[in-house]
Amino acid sequence: MGRRVSLENAKFEVGSQRAVGSKMTVFAAYPMGFIVKPVGQPIFCEMATEVYIDDEAGGPFVVVKQTDSDPQPGQIRVSEEEWPIINEAVEKMLKVCREISKEQP
Questions:
Q1: How far apart (Å, rounded) are the C-alpha atoms in residues 62 and 78?
Q2: Which of 35, 41, 55, 96 is packed most tightly, with the most Cβ within 10 A?
Q3: Domain range annotation of the chain
Q4: Helix (H) or strand (E) segment spanning residue 69
C-alpha cells in the first residue's frame, strides 16, 4: 500500500515591498507547480505528472502534463492511488490562479 503525501505544507507566503523610483512596489511569490511521482523515482520518470500554472496572456490556467512512453495527445493516465494527490495539486494550483487573477486589472 502506498504512502499518501499531503500537499498541505506546500503553501508559500512570501512578500516584500521595495522602493522603485519614487513609488513603493509590492512583490509576491507564487508556487507555479508540482510534480507528482512515485516516491524514490526521479522527477523525469515515466510515471511523473506535472501540474503547473501557465498563462498565454488570457489569464492563468492549470496544465496537467505527463511524459509517457506511449503518448496519446490530450490523454493522461491516472491510477487510483495517484488520483488524490494529483487532484489536490490541481486544486492548489487553481487557488493560486484565482489569487493571481484578483491582482490583475
A1: 17
A2: 96
A3: 31-103
A4: none
Report the alpha-carbon distance of residue 94 to residue 58 in Å, rounded: 15
Q: From 57, 61, 5, select the one nearest 35 (Cα to Cα).
A: 5
Angle CA 24–17–8, to nearest 5: 145
Separation CA 51–CA 54 (nearest Å): 10
Nearest Cα neighbor of 38 from 76, 70, 81, 8 is 81
Element (H, E) at 97: helix 83-103
Half-sphere exposure of 63 (CA within 13 A, CB side): 12
Q: Using CA atoms, how far apart are residues 16 and 6, in angstroms rounded to an integer?
A: 28
pTM of the model: 0.74
Looking at this protein, which amino acid is placed at residue 44?
F
